[in-house]
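ok trying again, last paste got cut off:
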Amino acid sequence: MARVAVFGGSFNPIHNGHLLLADEVLEQLARVLFVPAGQPPHKPVGAVAPAADRFKMVKLATTNHPRFAVSDVELLRAGPSYTVDTLETLAAAGDQLFLLIGSETFLDLLSWRSPKRIAELARLVVVPRAGSAFDPDGPAAQTVLREIGADGFAPALSPSEGRGVLIAHVTSLPISASDLRRRAREGRSLAFRVPPDVAAYIRAHRLYEGA
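nice, full thing came through this time. structure:
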């Protein structure tokens, strides 16, 4: 049974911060599966670039990494892209799934569809943002733990069994997708922020010019 990290998101666009995070978690896992959202349920329709373009950019960004893969499972499913549905599909392959989520996302998890089922299908891996005030012992985090039936927090990508939520402290680059979209709109450089092929794709397809 392979240990696979599921890295979902709008990737609007994917950038070097995403790639560095994924590369670092590979020290403990077999591969990282990027899952671009087809229609992010927490964002209004039209708030992100077309799903086909975001999927293509993720493919371009990851194609030369032997342990990165990209899934189009959320693009093939109509309607909002709910994580629980994605995990139900991916779990059929028999791999041990680890769901990568930011610390802010973890604190908002109870607003997602079927958060307890999400925690049953995949081991949650919380990635605190650099400078984040995430407090695993605080009441907000403890409420989420209790509601999803998790055993507590563990400080690393532990191979142990159980349903504890893992915390992965990885390098965080100060890159934001909103800043990249603004730079693209203003015709400014994207170099050293996104892979060259992704920057070229954004320019060629004139993405974010009207954002």
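cool. Residues 27 and 106 are 22 Å apart (CA to CA). The mean pLDDT is 92.
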